[in-house]
Specification:
With 76 residues, this protein is of the alpha+beta class. The protein is built from three helices and four strands, in the order βαββαβα. It has one domain: Histidine-containing Protein, Chain: A, CATH 3.30.1340. Strands 1-4-2-3 form a four-stranded antiparallel β-sheet, with no helix packed on it. The chain is globular and about 30 Å long. The two termini are 18 Å apart.
Length: 76
């Protein structure tokens, strides 16, 4: 599992994030506090507090291409 911190600031960011995650076969979860949300669920993501960075858990070790696409959302 790979963990990164991301920020989704706008509705367009959420839509692009979900569309990108949906193209991959592995699971991606978003964790905010005690909530674990499927990264492919747009309704689930909107239930999170998007004003703060969110932890993204990628359940694959072979996700280099995915991480390149997610780079604009990743905060260091």
């Amino acid at each position: 599992m790979i963990t990164k911190t991301i920020s989704l600031n706008t509705i367009v960011d959420v839509k692009e994030f979900v569309n990108t995650v949906a193209r991959y076969d592995f699971e991606v979860d978003l964790v905010s506090g005690r909530y674990h949300i499927d990264g492919k669920s747009i309704m689930g993501i909107f239930s999170l507090d998007l004003s703060k960075p969110i932890k993204m858990e990628i359940h694959s070790d072979h996700c280099d291409e995915f991480l390149k696409e997610m780079q604009r959302f990743i905060v260091e």
